[in-house]
Amino acid sequence: xxxxxxxxxxxxxxxxxxxxxxxxxxxxxxxxxxxxxxxxxxxxxxxxxxxxxxxxxxxxxxxxxxxxxxx
Length: 71
Hints:
Layout: H1 2-44, H2 48-58, H3 63-70
């Protein structure tokens, strides 16, 4: 729990520093890009875990190929 609190405090200070350094326009652009990465990253992994598990059960000999592709 202490580690989470410390991580949140550090993230707050780093975020404030980056926002002050970049200014409103460039920080907004950075946030916009980050939101796209988060949105499409979540969509890309949607249901992938279940598919990988199913394929691993069906063919365990392809384990390295399946895990590498999913990663």
